[in-house]
Amino acid sequence: MLSLVSTAVIVCGIYTLFYVVRRFNSWWYEPTLKNGKAPLPPGDMGWPLLGNMLSFLRDFKSTNPEAFISSFVSRFNRVGVYKAFMFGNPTILATTPEACRRVLMDDANFIPGWPKSTVKLMGSKSFVGISQEEHKRLRKLTAAPLNGPEALSKYMNWIEERVVSALENWSKMDQIDLLTELRRLTFNIIGYIFIRYDPNAIGALEREYGVLNLGVRAMAINLPGTAFNKALKARRNLKAILQSVIDKRRSGQEKNDDNNGDMLDSLLQVKDENGRFLTDEEIIDLLIMYLNAGHESSAHITMWTVIFLLKHPEIYAKAKAEQENIVKRRIERQRHMRFSELREMHYLRKVLDESLRLVNISPMVFREAVDDVEFNGFTIPKGWKTQVWLRNVHLDPHVYHDPMKFDPERWNNFVPRAGMFIPFGGGSRECPGNELAKMEISVFFHYMLLHYEVERLTPDCQLRYLPHPRPIDNCPVRIRKL
C-alpha cells in the first residue's frame, strides 16, 4: 500500500513539474489584459528559454516543414494568429493573408522586429534596424539608383554580358553544381553593380558573405564555433573591405573606368532635402544588406526555376517558345537584349511568380507591435514580435488551389489580393531590390532557354530548408550548348 502511495506521489510530482515547466513562458511573458480587451490568440509557447525553436528546427530539418504551422492550425483552428515563443521572444505567428496584410501594411502599429542576430549582422543602419522615419528617408534616397528604369537599363548590359559568359563556360565543363555557380554569377553581378569590385577578387568577398548568411537567422549565441560567432567575424572582414573601397573612392584613388558609375557612387553623392549626405556607417550597412540579399535570393530562385522547368517539359517548351518569338520580332541588326523586351516576357513572369510562391526563399519576415493591436477578435500585445509567415500563405489550400503543384497557368487573369502573394514582403518595407532581381533572372532564362540544354544529374536528391530551401547537393547539372 505504501509503495502505491509513493508511486502515486512521484507520478503526481512529475506531472506537476512537467505542467509548471510547460506553462512557464505563458506565466512569465503573457501580459494581464485590461477588462474589455480581446484575449491573446491561442497557441503554445513551448519550453522555457527554448520556446518553440526545437519543434521549428525539427520540422524544418525534416521533409515536411509545413508541419510546424500545421500543428498550430490543427490544435487551435484556422484563426490566422497564434502565440508562440521564437528566437528568444514572445511572438505572434501571422499565417493567413488577412493577418499578414495587417502586419505588413500597418506601419503605425508594427515596426521591424528582426532577431538580434540579423540586426547585428546586417547592421543597425540597414533597413532591418532603422526607425520608420529613417527608413522612409533611406528608401527614397536609394530607390532610383537601384530600381528605377534608368538604373535598370544601365545595369542590363553588364548582366547580359556576365550571363552569356557564365553559360558558355559551364557548357565546357563535364558538370557543375548549379547553385554554387549561380551564387558566383549573381554575386559577380551584384558586386559589380554596387561597388565595381574586381571580378578576380570577388571569390573571397563571396565566401565571407556565405559565412555571414548562415548566421543571419541563427540564435544570437556568441560562443566560439557557433554560426553567429563566425558570422560576426565575417561581418568585421566585410566592413573593413567596404570601408577601404569607400576611402579610395572618396580620396579619388579609385575611379570608375566608364561614365555610368555604380551604386556606391550614387550613395556617396546623394543627399536629402536638408543637404545631408549618407555617413560611411550608413553606406556600409546598406551595402552589406543589399549585397547579401541581392545574390542569395536570385541564385536560389534561378536554380529552383530550372528544376521546375526540367520537371515539366510542356512548361519548358512554352517558356522557350516565348523567348524565340521575342528574337523573331527583333530588327536585323539587333544583337543584344533591350530593356523593353522584359515587358514581353509574360509567360516567363508567370513561371517566376510560381517559383517564388512555391519555393519561399524566406519562410517569414519579422515585425514588432508598438501598441496593443486587436485583430480577428484577439489582442497582439505591445512589444511582442510578430512573424509574417509567407510560406504558410503561399502553400495554404484555402488561398491557392492545389498549392503544391507548379502551375504557371494559375496566374492567368489572376490578380492576388493584398497579403496573398508576398514573396518580397509588402507595404512600405517591401524588398527594395525586387525589380533588379527579376530582371537578372529573366536575362538568365532568355539565354538559357534559347541556346542551352540542361540535364539534372540527381533529380531525387533530398532537400534542406534552412537557411533557404535547396537540394543538399546544390543541384549538379550538365549543360550542353545547342
Automatic annotation (TrEMBL):
<keyword id="KW-1133">Transmembrane helix</keyword>
<dbReference type="GO" id="GO:0016125">
    <property type="term" value="P:sterol metabolic process"/>
</dbReference>
<dbReference type="GO" id="GO:0005506">
    <property type="term" value="F:iron ion binding"/>
</dbReference>
<keyword id="KW-0560">Oxidoreductase</keyword>
<keyword id="KW-0479">Metal-binding</keyword>
<keyword id="KW-0812">Transmembrane</keyword>
<dbReference type="InterPro" id="IPR036396">
    <property type="entry name" value="Cyt_P450_sf"/>
</dbReference>
<feature type="binding site" description="axial binding residue">
    <location>
        <position position="431"/>
    </location>
    <ligand>
        <name>heme</name>
    </ligand>
</feature>
<comment type="pathway">
    <text>Hormone biosynthesis.</text>
</comment>
<dbReference type="GO" id="GO:0020037">
    <property type="term" value="F:heme binding"/>
</dbReference>
<dbReference type="GO" id="GO:0016020">
    <property type="term" value="C:membrane"/>
</dbReference>
<dbReference type="InterPro" id="IPR002401">
    <property type="entry name" value="Cyt_P450_E_grp-I"/>
</dbReference>
<dbReference type="GO" id="GO:0051777">
    <property type="term" value="F:ent-kaurenoic acid monooxygenase activity"/>
</dbReference>
<keyword id="KW-0472">Membrane</keyword>
<keyword id="KW-0349">Heme</keyword>
<protein>
    <submittedName>
        <fullName>Cytochrome P450 CYP88A28</fullName>
    </submittedName>
</protein>
<dbReference type="Pfam" id="PF00067">
    <property type="entry name" value="p450"/>
</dbReference>
<keyword id="KW-0503">Monooxygenase</keyword>
<dbReference type="GO" id="GO:0005783">
    <property type="term" value="C:endoplasmic reticulum"/>
</dbReference>
<comment type="similarity">
    <text>Belongs to the cytochrome P450 family.</text>
</comment>
<dbReference type="GO" id="GO:0010268">
    <property type="term" value="P:brassinosteroid homeostasis"/>
</dbReference>
<comment type="pathway">
    <text>Plant hormone biosynthesis; gibberellin biosynthesis.</text>
</comment>
<dbReference type="InterPro" id="IPR017972">
    <property type="entry name" value="Cyt_P450_CS"/>
</dbReference>
<dbReference type="GO" id="GO:0009686">
    <property type="term" value="P:gibberellin biosynthetic process"/>
</dbReference>
<keyword id="KW-0408">Iron</keyword>
<dbReference type="InterPro" id="IPR001128">
    <property type="entry name" value="Cyt_P450"/>
</dbReference>
<dbReference type="GO" id="GO:0016132">
    <property type="term" value="P:brassinosteroid biosynthetic process"/>
</dbReference>
